[in-house]
Design a protein that fits this description.
With 140 residues, the protein is α/β, with parallel strands linked by helices. The protein has 5 helices and 5 strands, in the order αβαβαβαβαβ. This is Sulfur reduction protein DsrE.
């Protein structure tokens, strides 16, 4: 009798753990990326990397986000500096994100943030939240 109970318990545990694994695989069927950077000039190689990954992975390529944080966050309000990066990011399917915490800390006028950029309350927290969703992460 103990053997039947233990066998049934073992079988149920295996079935539930396999179902959970399949659900996780379904949610992460694309390769998603997030890069946290503190310097605007780094956008050039980051966007080139996204383009290469997209070409290499084809249909497996998912979302690519770049979070900009730190003391140089004010550079995103320089339209001359940002125009080419925004255009290249849009062409590559890269989403640019500004850290609201950095904007507030360094007293940057949020009305001057390009409308193409998403602003999140806390860039570091947002990065961790994306990692929990299965995003591959890199900080520069």
């Amino acid at each position: 009798m103990k053997t039947y109970i233990l066998s049934a318990l073992f079988l149920m545990l295996n079935l539930f753990s396999t179902a959970n694994l399949k659900a996780q695989q379904h949610l992460n069927d694309k390769n998603n990326y997030v890069v946290l950077t503190k310097k605007i000039p780094q956008l050039q190689p980051i966007i080139l990397t996204a383009e290469s990954l997209k070409a290499e992975e084809g249909d497996d390529f998912g979302d690519f986000q770049v979070i900009i944080c730190g003391k140089e966050i004010g550079d995103i309000t320089d339209t001359h500096k940002m125009k080419k990066f925004i255009r290249k990011a849009e062409e590559a399917g890269v989403h640019l994100v500004a850290c609201g915490f950095s904007l507030n800390k360094f007293k940057i006028d949020t009305t001057k943030v390009p409308e193409e950029m998403k602003v999140v309350e806390n860039g570091i927290l947002y990065n961790f939240q994306l990692q929990k969703k299965g995003y591959k992460s890199l900080s520069l």
